[in-house]
Amino acid sequence: MGTLADHIEAYIKKMLRESQTNSVELSRAQLADNFACVPSQINYVLATRFTLERGYIVESRRGGGGYIRVGHVQVDDSYQHAIKLLQSIGPELDERSMEDILASLRDYQVISPREYQVIRGIIQQEVGTVSAGKDILRASLLRSLLFFMIKLEE
What we know:
The chain is mainly α. Helix content is 60%, strand content 10%. A 3-stranded antiparallel sheet has the order 1-3-2. A hairpin with a 5-residue loop joins strand 2 (56-61) and strand 3 (67-72). Helix 2 (28-34) crosses helix 3, helix 5 (95-107) packs antiparallel against helix 6 and helix 6 (113-127) packs antiparallel against helix 7. The model has no long low-confidence stretch (mean pLDDT 83).
């Protein structure tokens, strides 16, 4: 079934796919009414699912005529995008950043939804076994797994 956040994300992505300009203007209040939720739920989805790391730009203007503009950044070469993401992984990586990187690779079809789940599951399982150094282990595992995946594509 999916969470409310999943449904809001899917709705916005559908609107983006149908857009001629690769961007959409939304009303936070109208979206909240459509999904019977509070506007802060819309903010949460935008802040966590439509990040630059995932290939989106979100512009917001509050007030009476306020709007939210969501744009999808076009990456001409998904391989180059994957390399840049791989290079962006530092010595430590928090869980949110890992999720953003994997979601971006999935959205750009560098990895399949199944590969996304497998990589995510491996990392979560291994990181869950240590009590300290989780961010260091997460970065190392993600870097290694993505490097392996990219090498397979060459």
